[in-house]
UniProtKB/TrEMBL annotation:
The keyword Cytoplasm does not apply. This is Sulfotransferase. InterPro entries: NST/OST, P-loop_NTPase, Sulfotransferase_dom. Belongs to the sulfotransferase 1 family. SUPFAM superfamilies: P-loop containing nucleoside triphosphate hydrolases (SSF52540). Coiled coil: none annotated. It holds the Pfam family Sulfotransfer_1.
Length: 370
């Protein structure tokens, strides 16, 4: 009897162990299937969001600061720009390729770029053609420029460099940040202040025949203040004796060598590039090629980008495919000058001649204003 009871008990234990083992195995299998499926789905989701590796090794430093997917746009822009820099092909006649690249680089810079202090400045001179140079160079995809004149180094210096930096457009590491304020050239404190910001800043100065520049300056003032004295009255202390009033700002700005000597105390001549305001009208592409070389840019802006507007007497940019109109300077540019007596012009040319000669010798270029 006891033997039969023990036998029944053993069979029950064996059956329980078998059922327990099967149940445990089934649970393990189910859990494994569910776990693996979740892992696979997670990996698939990750793979779907993963960004492809960049082909542009030169952009690693910049891209390392961004998350993988956000940097895809930057990589595309850098890859396209790098491919073009390595290519010997010229821009097409419409400039549409470079216009597209400019739009792409601008869009990427606005999203992922940083606000930086400018690498280059257009520092002068007033009524020399600075607005034209700014508008022309801005079409380059590797240039981002502030459209307004911040007047930081002459009027707003007490606001500090952080305020100044905050005005700048966002740029990528491969782009140049640029601003224009023509009054810097004649501001005594400007060279020292700019050098304090950076001794390596590149400086662009647009110069023009000082007599023509003075007349243009007066014409602009007259359009705003019709009751001012005549040009002759302001330009001379004594007209009959030919004594020029060099304290009048319109005259003093054109004494370029006096202002340049101040700049050369803080900057090397190689850091300054002088654009001819006259040639900017007759050969804008030629002058802009020199500007691009000075800034270390590929020569993208060529004669294919310009046409001459006979009404304004000034070159304009051909319209990009994305625009319905060509880009010309504002109404104040190319306005008709006040008529000045030829004898007055000759007296002023004689006054400026020694200043011009010394200026030519210092910059190593004869602008042929005499």
């Amino acid at each position: 009897m006891a033997h039969r009871f023990l036998s029944t008990t053993n069979r029950f234990r064996a059956r329980f162990a078998f059922i327990f083992t099967v149940s445990l195995s089934c649970s393990y299998v189910c859990y494994s299937i569910l776990f693996c499926r979740g892992t696979i789905m997670t990996n698939q989701g990750y793979e779907g969001k993963r960004c492809p590796p960049s082909k542009n090794a030169g952009g690693k430093k910049l891209l390392g600061k961004l998350d993988n997917c956000a940097s895809l746009e930057v990589r595309s822009a850098l890859d396209a720009s790098a491919a073009q820099r390595g290519s010997n092909k010229s821009p097409d006649s419409s400039g549409s390729h470079w216009a597209d690249m400019k739009l792409r680089n601008t869009s990427v810079a606005q999203k992922y770029g940083n606000k930086k202090l400018p690498n280059a400045l257009i520092v002068g001179v007033k009524k020399g053609g600075t607005r034209a140079v700014l508008e022309f160079i801005r079409i380059h995809p590797d240039v981002r420029a502030l459209g307004t004149e911040p007047h930081f180094f002459d009027r707003n210096y007490d606001r500090g460099l952080d305020w100044y930096r905050g005005l700048m457009p966002r740029t990528l590491d491969s782009q140049i940040t640029l601003e224009k304020t023509p009054s810097y050239f004649v501001t005594r404190e400007a060279p020292r202040r700019i050098a304090t910001m950076s001794h390596e800043t590149k400086l662009i100065v647009v110069v023009r025949n000082p007599v023509t520049r003075a007349i243009s300056d007066y014409t602009q003032t007259l359009s705003k203040k019709p009751d001012i004295p005549t040009f002759e009255e302001l330009a001379f202390k004594n007209r009959s004796l030919g004594l020029v009033d060099s304290s009048w700002n319109a005259i003093r700005i054109g004494m370029y060598i006096l202002h340049l000597e101040n700049w050369l105390q803080y900057f090397r001549p190689s850091q300054m590039h002088f654009v001819s305001g006259e040639r900017l009208i007759t050969d804008p592409a030629g002058e802009m090629e020199k500007v691009q070389d000075f800034l270390g840019l590929k020569r993208i802006i060529t004669d294919k980008h310009f046409y001459f507007n006979r009404t304004k007497g000034f070159p304009c940019l051909k319209k990009p495919e994305s625009s319905s109109q060509p880009r010309c300077l504002g109404k104040s540019k190319g306005r008709t000058h006040v008529q000045i007596d030829q004898e007055v012009i000759e007296q002023l040319q004689e006054f400026y001649r020694p200043f011009n000669i010394k200026f030519y010798e210092t910059v190593g270029h004869d602008f042929k204003w005499d």
